[in-house]
Design brief:
The protein contains five helices and no strands. The chain is mainly α and 95 residues long.
């Protein structure tokens, strides 16, 4: 297996030292793998079985990285403007 060295600012390194139990090489490997999967997903819109297994294992999906669709954002904004339901009791929800 090849090895790479990454320079990080001193301040970041000091913060990383507070998490001594974190395997930073594994964090970097997973990030690189996610980027690779994301690029393939953008091109094909599909995941290989191997990539899907990695996504399940890491609780991540390339679609998580895509921006929200404009129509969905607009719907959320419209919902914010609606008057919220006033609930005094749980049974009020089911009326």
């Amino acid at each position: 297996m090849a090895t790479i060295t990454l320079p990080v600012p001193d301040e970041l390194y000091m913060r990383m030292e507070h998490f001594s139990w974190v395997k930073w090489s594994e964090v970097a490997r997973n990030s690189i793998r996610k980027r690779e999967i994301f690029e393939k997903y953008l091109r094909s819109g599909e995941l290989s079985d191997e990539d899907a297994e990695f996504c399940d294992k890491t609780d991540w999906h390339p679609a998580d990285e895509l921006p929200l669709r404009e129509d969905y954002v607009q719907r959320l904004e419209d919902l914010k403007k609606e008057t919220p339901l006033k609930v005094r009791d749980v049974s009020d929800i089911f009326e």
